Amino acid sequence: MTQAFNASLNDLVAQYLALAELSVMEELLDLCGAEIDTRALPLLRRRLQEEEAQAAALGARGYVRMHEKCEQLMICLKQLIEALEGMEHDTANGPLEAEY
C-alpha cells in the first residue's frame, strides 16, 4: 500500500470516528483492534444501511439537523467502505510491490 493511500485511509477513519457513536467505536476495536482493515467491512456496510434508513425517517419527520448528521455519516461511510474494498481488492491480487 502506498503512503498516500494510507494517509487517505487514516483521514477517512478519523472523519468517520468523529461522527460515529461510541458503541460503534467499541465494536470496531473488538473486531479489528487498533487498525481498521477489511474485517470492518461487514460492520460498516450494516451501519450504512442503518444510517440510510434513519436518514429517511428523520427527513420525513422534519428533523433537519439530525438528517444532516446522518447524511454526513453516510458520505463518510461510503468513502471508507470504498477505500477498504480497494484495499481488499489489492490484497486479493497479491502483495503490492514497494515503491522506490
Helices and strands, in N-to-C order?
HHHH
> Can you summarize the main beta sheet?
none
Q: Give the termini separation.
A: 13 Å
Provide the number of structural domains.
1
Q: Given the C-alpha coordinates, what overall shape results?
A: elongated
Secondary structure tally, helices: 4
Poorly predicted tracts of residues: 94-100
Radius of gyration: 15 Å
> Mean of residue pLDDT?
82
Q: Give me the oligomer status.
A: single chain
Provide the structure class. Answer: mainly alpha
Structural features, described:
The structure is a single chain. The protein is built from four helices and no strands. By secondary structure, it is an all-alpha fold. It has one domain (3-90). Helix 1 runs antiparallel to helix 4 and helix 3 runs antiparallel to helix 4 (64-92). The chain is elongated, with a radius of gyration of 15 Å. Mean pLDDT is 82; it is low at 94-100.
